Amino acid sequence: MPQAIVEFDSVNFGYTTSPILEEVNFALEPQEAVCIVGPNGSGKTTLLKLMLGLITPSSGSIQIFGKAPIEARKHIGYVPQHILYDPLFPITVLEVVLMARLGKSYFGWRRRAEDLAAAERALDDVGLQGLEEQSFQTLSGGQKQRVLIARALACEPELLLLDEPTANLDLAVEFQLVETLMRHRKNMTLVMVSHDLDFVSKVVEKVLCVNRRVAVHRTGTLSEKVIQETYGPGLRIIRHDEHCHHD
What is the DSSP pairing of strand 159-163 with strand 189-193? Predict the structure, then answer.
């Protein structure tokens, strides 16, 4: 049996005296595609930050590729939900994507042919070829999101973490993102946070339902009962594969 890529063992975490996550236990295998769902404030983004080693658990243990998260970062690509940057800083699309290659050289970083090739492949993957020299600041919200996805892909990760990757994307670009992620699935493990359950059903086979505790479900068993237990009784599932019949 292959070693788990991600393993949480009795993990607890809280920013203050109030717990955010309690007794979290799950493991992800190589090349799995997983989505994290749950109401706002339930701990979804916290799970990603724990995987990245940006925060540490109050108790319990986390291993990524059999190591502490902070030691595994060079194998991880990350797309944040929001980015903070100085809009006056002059940086091009290509330069943003090339940031992903900073950890690939052991002798200091310079722009190598293989780095440029990886960045250009990633931009092509997200449909932004030809915009390499355009200022990042001048892009639309959806284009900026695609640049960040390209940056994550350019580091050629073995684990890709995406926090609300469909935010600011129209339906056509969302469809392209689905195709891109499906192409890369054979090379990496995917973990994404999303409220878009229709998008989730197209990409992943396992769902982590988070509301302080974590319950693991297969996509096919994501019933209305499971969703209500996660989000509360006010939520209903809209079935896109069924049609209403009128008399």
Answer: parallel
Is 238 part of a structural domain of the chain?
Answer: no
pLDDT in tens, 78-115: 998 877 777 778 899 999 999 988 866 545 556 788 88
Rounded Cα–Cα distance for residues 192 and 186 (Å): 16
Q: What is the mean pLDDT of residues 132-159?
A: 91
- Is residue 120 a contact partner of residue 137, using CB atoms and an 8 Å limit? no
245 within domain boundaries? no
Domain for residue 243, yes or no? Answer: no
Q: Which two tokens stand for residue 93?
A: 């699309």
46 part of a folded domain:
yes
If one compares 76 and 202, the residue with the highest pLDDT of the two is 76
- In total, how many domains does the chain have? 1
CATH classification at residue 59 = 3.40.50.300
The pTM score is 0.82
Beta bridge pairs of residue 216: 208
Sign of CA dihedral 190, 191, 194, 200: positive
Domain that includes residue 168, residue range: 6-231
